[in-house]
């Protein structure tokens, strides 16, 4: 990669992030529901605020300004690193994100590990002997994994592993023991998707000429599968793992609620329901950054896995 | 080449694992250090852990005072008694000096958790801050002054007899002047309660410890942990797994299961919260009082309580449940379940049966009921109402929307009916009725306008005498009952699960405070 390509890439990222911020600000702005009303309702313990209260709040937070003015004010502060304060709690958005991000990262990394640890061996096992009992078992498992709703699997794991077997605590954000069940819940859904892809990719590759060559050289099957086939099958798999990031953030909302983990998912959903614009904007922007960076990283990985792919996209 | 892949994979794995290891080594919390979970039986016996649906989002009494008051960290000037009346708090006595002037005598010998004495001077900053906040904007306070060392004087713009009731609200809880920063923000809840703030894990839990030398009866446990757990099943599972001593607001249907466990107890108690239908009295068909009454006769409220609320709760008659508050008027004649009567009322109003749905002048009796699902059971109840109204000739569509959207659309345009749930006494004063039926002060949206009701509510708001106020609020309840801009359906019963060895817990009807300072654990 050279400097010019990197700069072009960074410029694209900025354009994407700008687009994301305009879109989210615009979308939440046209969503019915007045932030003053919803936030005051929360501050009053669920009671409906009076008209005076709503007007005072709107004036205090600058909500009476037209959309472009509000957005410009937000962008002006954001480029200086100030994401503003929550309308609800007056806390700095950056601080709110900072306290929750570690929980979400831990959940994301752990569930991804679970997913890969289950999916890659299962996918390979199915592909090596298609139509065998192992294959059917793995495919059936994948079907169950994809179909099972997260919250349901979460409760199931809690009942079995916490109440019956007494292995892990039910819920909470604490040490590693609190991470196991949420990671299994979120990871198993992803594992199902990844396993099916590993299987398909492996089946494709195993039919390739270079595999026949490797076999005819008399290499042991294990070497053929793991050294020659798997590596070539990894390109689509890495892509899907990158794309599964969206699944992590989606799934995190449910898993964070069931397992009582303060994270980005719950922060975002609560903020959307409360119409807490600054928090919604801050979290969306961060998610945008994570996506763009991940995609970039995935692209870089391609060129390491397959030298024919240049990260700029042009063949070398 | 193959080696690089493997190295990359191993590196990736190692990064992940060491990252998780680091996370664990830091106690699983990169931000606020240890998680404070006590271990061992002795420590446990001195700790009460309570789980509730609301996550602690702020340390500021203006934002989250109702929560800090519930867990006895902050205290307001006045409190709510078990009979839902105003009772002494940090003020031992209060009186109305003239129409717009109130005096509050502060309790002697009270210190804030930072050692500052409670005097009129130290009470002023947080009281002024509270009355200036948006959520108190409907309370017409003009000034808050100190008359002498122990007397606070509050003046209002207009005669306002519900003032003491508003002085029980969480927003008005007192914090030490030291807790209020120069920019007016509150960074620590330094209050006067039996528990003092120790640690806050953002979005997750609060730890508080017994206040040494508390001015009242000292707490019977050393440590109180409050956990915000949004999901009701998770609260219940944590209770069953001994991770909570008390799980608040559980689904009605869990009460029996909890009772059947030897180590758990279910506390069920009625609270002054109601489910009700708000009719749009400005648009057809509910602009006709007979059509609104027909709905009330067509809906079988007892069946709703029995089948959907697992028998917990009761059919509502007026806004106030009479076994909780004396403000309920007891001479209202309940709308009995009587589909025949409903049918004849509709015919009287000109809606004639024509096939399945009634019509009038070519317009069919089609209505839409809006409700929301952030309160469990409302959508199910809406479906039951739908079916029961169809029996008498309505064509009903149930629409689920977000509660904020409903409020906005119902306020700005026309609608048919909204199924809503709300507390009817969240500050202990019947002036709350203004929110429902006053033509201008209302926060509901029926569009109901009745001069007599407005006059009675305004008079009652000015008058101090309890009997005179009661007469007026009673009359308002009678008129509203007759006119049905709002159809009261059922009251709420809360289910709180505790471990069976928890002693001394007494549910508070308005839930203004959990009173965990009275709770102990049998050894």
UniProtKB/TrEMBL annotation, chain B:
<protein>
    <submittedName>
        <fullName>ABC transporter substrate-binding protein</fullName>
    </submittedName>
</protein>
<dbReference type="InterPro" id="IPR039424">
    <property type="entry name" value="SBP_5"/>
</dbReference>
<feature type="domain" description="Solute-binding protein family 5">
    <location>
        <begin position="86"/>
        <end position="436"/>
    </location>
</feature>
<comment type="similarity">
    <text>Belongs to the bacterial solute-binding protein 5 family.</text>
</comment>
<keyword id="KW-0813">Transport</keyword>
<dbReference type="Pfam" id="PF00496">
    <property type="entry name" value="SBP_bac_5"/>
</dbReference>
<keyword id="KW-0614">Plasmid</keyword>
<keyword id="KW-0732">Signal</keyword>
<dbReference type="InterPro" id="IPR000914">
    <property type="entry name" value="SBP_5_dom"/>
</dbReference>
<dbReference type="InterPro" id="IPR030678">
    <property type="entry name" value="Peptide/Ni-bd"/>
</dbReference>
């Amino acid at each position: 990669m050279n400097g010019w390509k990197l700069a072009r890439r960074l410029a694209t990222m900025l354009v994407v992030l700008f687009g994301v911020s305009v879109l989210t600000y615009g979308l939440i702005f046209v969503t019915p529901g007045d932030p003053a009303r919803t936030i005051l309702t929360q501050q009053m313990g669920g009671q409906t605020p009076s008209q005076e209260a709503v007007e005072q709040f709107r004036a205090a937070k600058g909500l009476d300004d037209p959309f472009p003015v509000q957005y410009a004010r937000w962008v002006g502060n954001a480029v200086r690193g100030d994401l503003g304060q929550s309308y609800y709690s007056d806390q700095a958005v950056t601080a709110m994100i900072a306290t929750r991000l570690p929980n979400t990262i831990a959940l994301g990394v752990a569930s991804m590990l679970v997913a890969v640890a289950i999916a890659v061996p299962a996918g390979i096992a199915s592909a090596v002997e298609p139509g065998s009992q192992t294959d059917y078992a793995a495919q059936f498992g994948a079907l169950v994994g994809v179909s099972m709703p997260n919250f349901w699997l979460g409760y199931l794991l809690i009942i079995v592993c916490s109440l019956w077997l007494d292995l892990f605590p039910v819920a909470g954000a604490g040490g590693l023991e609190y991470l196991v069940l949420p990671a299994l819940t979120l990871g198993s859904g992803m594992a199902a998707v990844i396993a099916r892809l590993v299987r398909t990719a492996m089946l494709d590759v195993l039919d390739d000429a270079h595999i026949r060559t490797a076999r005819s050289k008399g290499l042991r099957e294990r070497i053929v599968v793991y050294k020659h086939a798997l590596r070539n099958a990894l390109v689509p798999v890495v892509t899907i793992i990158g794309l599964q990031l969206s699944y992590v953030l989606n799934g995190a909302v449910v898993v964070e609620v069931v397992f009582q983990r303060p994270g980005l998912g719950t922060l975002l959903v609560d903020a959307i329901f409360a119409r807490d614009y600054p928090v919604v904007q801050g979290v969306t922007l961060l998610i945008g950054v994570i996506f763009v960076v991940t995609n970039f990283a995935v692209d870089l990985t391609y060129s390491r896995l397959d030298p024919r792919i240049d990260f700029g996209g042009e063949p070398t | 080449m193959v080696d690089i892949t493997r190295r990359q994979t191993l590196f990736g794995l190692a990064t992940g694992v060491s990252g998780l290891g680091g996370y664990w080594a830091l106690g699983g919390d990169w931000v606020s250090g240890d998680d404070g979970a006590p271990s061992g039986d002795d420590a446990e016996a001195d700790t009460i852990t309570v789980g509730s649906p609301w996550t602690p989002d702020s340390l500021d009494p203006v934002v989250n005072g109702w929560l800090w008051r519930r867990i006895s960290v902050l205290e307001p000037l006045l409190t709510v008694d078990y009979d839902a009346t105003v009772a002494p708090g940090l003020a031992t006595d209060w009186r109305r000096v003239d129409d717009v002037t109130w005096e509050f005598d502060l309790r002697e010998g009270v210190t804030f958790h930072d050692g500052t004495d409670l005097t009129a001077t130290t009470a002023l900053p947080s009281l002024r801050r509270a009355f200036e906040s948006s959520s108190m904007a409907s309370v017409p306070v003009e000034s808050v002054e100190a008359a002498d060392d122990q007397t606070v004087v509050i003046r209002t713009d207009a005669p306002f007899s519900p003032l003491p009731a508003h002085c029980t609200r969480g927003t008005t809880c007192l914090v030490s002047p030291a807790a209020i920063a120069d920019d007016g923000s509150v960074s620590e809840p330094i209050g006067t309660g039996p528990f003092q703030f120790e640690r806050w894990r953002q979005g997750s839990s609060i730890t508080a410890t017994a206040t040494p030398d508390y001015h009242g009866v000292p707490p019977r446990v050393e440590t109180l942990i409050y956990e915000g757990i949004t999901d009701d099943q998770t609260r219940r599972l944590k209770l069953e797994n001994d991770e909570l001593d008390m799980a608040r607001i559980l689904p009605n249907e869990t009460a029996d299961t909890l009772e059947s466990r030897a180590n758990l107890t279910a506390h069920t108690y009625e609270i002054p919260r109601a489910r009700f239908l708000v009719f749009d009295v400005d648009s057809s068909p509910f602009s006709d009082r007979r059509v609104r009454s027909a709905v009330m006769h067509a809906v079988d409220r007892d069946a709703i309580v029995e089948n959907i609320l697992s028998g917990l709760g009761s059919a509502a008659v007026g806004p106030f449940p009479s076994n909780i508050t004396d403000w309920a008027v007891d001479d209202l004649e309940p709308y009995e379940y009587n589909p025949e009567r409903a049918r004849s009322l509709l015919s009287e109003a000109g809606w004639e049966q024509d096939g399945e749905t009634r019509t009038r002048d070519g317009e069919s009796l089609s209505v839409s009921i809006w409700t929301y699902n952030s309160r469990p059971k409302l959508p199910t109840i809406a479906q039951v109402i739908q079916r029961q109204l169809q029996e008498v000739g309505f064509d009903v569509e149930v629409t689920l929307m977000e509660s904020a959207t409903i409020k906005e659309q119902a306020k700005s345009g026309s609608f048919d009916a909204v199924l809503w749930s709300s507390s009817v006494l969240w500050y202990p004063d019947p002036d709350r009725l203004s929110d429902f039926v006053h033509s201008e002060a209302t926060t509901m949206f029926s569009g109901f306008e009745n001069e007599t009701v407005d006059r009675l509510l305004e008079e009652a708001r000015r008058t101090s005498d309890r009997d005179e106020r009661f007469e007026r609020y009673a009359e308002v309840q009678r008129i509203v009952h007759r006119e049905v801009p709002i159809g009261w359906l059922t009251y709420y019963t809360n289910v709180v699960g505790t471990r069976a060895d928890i002693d001394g817990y007494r549910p508070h009807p308005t839930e203004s405070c959990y009173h965990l300072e009275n709770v102990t654990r049998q050894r």
